[in-house]
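Before the break, one more example. Copy the sequence into your notebook; we will annotate it together after we see the structure.
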Amino acid sequence: MIEFVKLALTPIVLISAEGLIILTAQNRYGRVIDRIRELYSIYRADVERRDILKTELLILLKRGKILRNAMIFYFTSIFFCLITSMGLFLRIRQSFCIITFSIALFLFILGVIFSIWDLIFSYKAVEKEVSL
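Here is what the structure looks like once it is written out:
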């Protein structure tokens, strides 16, 4: 029984960690979306600065896609962690649980890669904006 509890805790701990990371990604995503809406309303009203605003909007749209993809990977990873936990609980074949947990880890890694990509990209965008 103790071995079963140890096995079942691993996906649950990963879910908790991913939940905290998702919270950060969602905050960043929300800020990007809010900024897109704000800049787009300025873009429609300000004809003189449209070129600059368009460039900034394109950068923000790209960041939004990157963050969206990161969150999709995180949520899908959580889904596979849940499937793994259910498999352990129902005592489904060990190979099934290993495969689903491996998929969860792979998706988590992809989410982290996209999050890092957003951090790098957002800094480059700020550098570009400040160098004007």
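The mean pLDDT is 87. The radius of gyration is 20 Å. Try to locate both features in your own notes.
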